Amino acid sequence: MNDEEVVHDIFWTHPDTVKLLNSFIIVLFMDSIYKTNKYRLPLLEIVGVTCSRLTFFVAFAYLEVERQSNFMWTLERFKGLYTYLMHCRKLLSRT
Predict the structure, then answer these.
(1) Cβ pair 71, 77 in contact under 8 A
(2) C-alpha distances in angstroms, 89 versus 18, 26, 81, 95?
(3) What is the pLDDT of residues 14-70, one digit of tens each?
(4) Strand extents, DSSP E, the chain
(5) Does this model's pTM top 0.85?
């Protein structure tokens, strides 16, 4: 098995939380928990806050290691969840 066939990082979310994220885009918290799961991998949690101060999980990522490149990969995936921002970019590019 070569390096291209090995999973290094995993990012996942749920469609309902993506809808919440695009409704409440201002306040986000990120926290990495290390070696507390059965896989002994860093788990990055991304949490949002609604206007009524309720929290909701936005996304999770298991990271192979806690390096800048792994966090950047995760944040790029996370950035892709913002449909509102993509819509604004399309509108701005038309003017």
Answers:
(1) no
(2) 18, 18, 14, 10
(3) 999 988 998 887 768 899 887 677 878 899 999 999 989 899 999 999 998 889 999
(4) 10-13, 28-33, 43-49, 55-62
(5) no
Short-list 72, 64, 83, CA closest to 17: 83
Separation between Cα atoms, residue 49 and residue 47, nearest integer Å: 7
Q: Indicate the helix (H) or strand (E) that contains 66.
A: none
| CB-based contacts of 79, cutoff 8 Å, min separation 6 | 85
